[in-house]
Amino acid sequence: MPVYWFALSCVPGPIHPARAILIFVLLHGLLYPSSNGYNSYMDRDEGSIGGVAKPMQPTRQLFYVTVWMDAAAFLLAFLVSGWFALALLFYIICSRAYSNRYIRLKRFPIWGYVTVVLNQGTLVFCMVYYGAAAAGASLPAPWLPAIAAAFLIGGFYPITQVYQHAADAADGVTTISMLLGKRGTFIYCAAMYLAAFGLLFVYYQQQQQLWDFVLLQLFFIPVIFFFIRWFLQVWKDGSAADFKRTMQMNVIAGTSTNLAFIVLLIIHQIG
């Protein structure tokens, strides 16, 4: 969701309200839930996963539901535009390739990671940016913020894997977090966030909106505080990289980032 609000806040001009709402529903009501459901069906996790401490075992019905949700999302996406529907279809294909037992991109730490970062970051940013803007495809290419979105996802995603090392290893999956180790995951994520903020600084400076960058940093103070405290705990004791703290990080980071970009969106649209 933060990428959605970030993309809307970057639109240089009026936003098409109906398309913006439709895109929000397609992404958060159909596409993402379907992707998570399909991943759960393929993984059949028994331990804590994705915000659920004790997940139920998936049934065949879940698979059918994900197929119908994807089909509905793809067809409704044509109400936005043809290229938007094709981009959404590409996301679905990549999501399936990531989780499917026969392809299983998530087995490969680098390829799986890159797939997630480019799709959930850059691709979704561009889908929202062009799809919700009243000016549509005539807008300039948002290279810097689109790349920054990838870095933001790239800095956050490994943290969501840090407590799952044992479960992933048992499933034959090697995640980027496993490759980095628990301490290395935190160091890597900090570096990715610094790179993202560097790109955002350049972008807002080019747009003569440096106060937006300052405002963004204010909203990130709770995230930085929790991240540093948690990192120090993990550095002393690896068991601190657990499900509970990961979910706390999810809530704090998600809430702070969403609020930051929503405020920027309101400022830009009113201004």
UniProtKB/TrEMBL annotation:
Name the membrane topology term.
Multi-pass membrane protein
State a single Pfam family of this protein. Answer: UbiA
Print the keywords alphabetically. Answer: Membrane, Transferase, Transmembrane, Transmembrane helix
Whether Transit peptide counts among this entry's keywords is: no
Keyword Transferase assigned: yes
Instruction: State the compartments where it is located.
Output: Membrane
Q: Per the annotation, which location comes first and is thus the protein's main one?
A: membrane
From the record, give the transmembrane residue ranges. Answer: 71-98, 110-131, 143-163, 184-204, 210-231, 251-270
In its UniProt record, a GO molecular function of this protein is: transferase activity, transferring alkyl or aryl (other than methyl) groups
A Gene Ontology CC term for this entry? membrane
| Protein's name according to its UniProt entry | 1,4-dihydroxy-2-naphthoate octaprenyltransferase
